[in-house]
Automatic annotation (TrEMBL):
Pfam families with a match to the protein in the record: Endonuclease_7 (PF02945)
Protein known as: Recombination endonuclease VII
SUPFAM superfamilies named in the record: His-Me finger endonucleases (SSF54060)
Protein species of origin: Mangrovactinospora gilvigrisea
Length: 299
């Protein structure tokens, strides 16, 4: 772990310290570094073919890339396209919903799944995919990152538009999928770039110092020179504060960009004596050295 940049090292520590001590985290990361990250194991560099949205006679637009329709890859590009959709339902004789209401596990009711299939014939009308409203998009690709996010005036939408104008619409890590998520440092709140859903969900688990597309992205975030801040960062910090109080210590207080305050880091409890004395016992000794070293470096 010493080969990793400090922010990445501390992120991995925070991720695993609830079930491992410092030495065990280092051993775990060393073991994981022997294997390739999914971004390298699953994807190969390829030219990105422009996509167009083609209107079908079902009133929805369907994505076409080159000669292939993404919602029916095995079918002919000109159609017809076979579609099938499943919908879960729940009812109790009075209410009819997609999902049971909260707290209704013991309430009388019944549920099931309804499937519906239809055949789509394509028309000659095409549009830029980003201009197609969500309700008019083929449901087969709406949730899997095939469609570009629609224009939005929210803070996240403006950040996404800025990143797209600076770096293009593709994922900043794999380069093979559309960038749909604004990626940021969860401790500092700094925006790092635009990622696809797949990379955004796993990139912070990368244990490799270099030689991996996830590692190169994390070591040199594309959006770092822009100095953008993630819009919901303060809310995330409040969630982390509760986790710190539950754990009894904050191992990465320096990344919070504020003076360290033991009254915020330790949950008030008569059952919690001196923290440093606890950590210096047995297998927590390496972690204690790490923490006290960080404390001495505080101004």
């Amino acid at each position: 772990m010493e080969d990793l940049p400090e922010p990445r090292r501390e992120n991995l520590l925070w991720r695993h310290l609830r079930c491992c001590d410092y030495t065990e985290v280092e051993e775990l990361v060393c073991e994981q570094s022997r294997y390739r990250c999914p971004v390298d194991a699953e994807l190969t560099p390829e030219a990105v073919t422009p996509r167009v949205a083609v209107l079908g006679d079902d009133g929805r637009y369907h994505l076409r890339t080159g000669p292939r329709m993404l919602c029916d890859p095995g079918g002919p590009a000109a159609g017809p396209l076979e579609h099938r959709q499943w919908c879960h339902w729940w009812g109790d004789g009075i209410r009819y919903r997609l999902q049971p209401p909260r707290g209704s596990a013991a309430a009388p009711g019944h549920d099931g799944v309804r499937a519906h299939g239809w055949t789509v014939t394509l028309t000659d009308r095409v549009r830029d995919p980003i201009e197609v409203p969500l309700r008019e998009r083929c449901p087969h690709q709406v949730r899997c990152g095939q469609w570009p996010p629609p224009p939005s005036t929210t803070k996240a939408g403006r950040l996404r538009a800025r990143l797209t104008s600076e770096f293009g619409p593709m994922c900043g890590a794999c380069g093979s999928r559309l960038g749909t998520e604004v990626d940021h440092d969860h401790f500092a709140g700094a925006v790092r770039g635009l990622l696809c859903h797949r990379c955004n969900s796993g990139i912070d688990t990368c244990p490799h110092p270099t030689g991996c597309r996830w590692a190169e992205y994390l070591n040199h975030p594309p959006a770092a020179p822009l100095c953008l801040r993630y819009s919901h960062h303060r809310g995330l910090l409040r969630v982390e504060d509760r986790k710190v109080a539950a754990a009894g210590f904050d191992p990465f207080f320096a990344l919070r960009r504020r003076p360290f305050d033991w009254s915020r880091a330790i949950a008030p409890s008569e059952a919690v004596p001196d923290l440093t004395a606890i950590l210096r016992r047995g297998r927590f000794r390496p972690l204690a050295g790490h923490l006290t070293g960080r404390l001495r470096r505080q101004p």
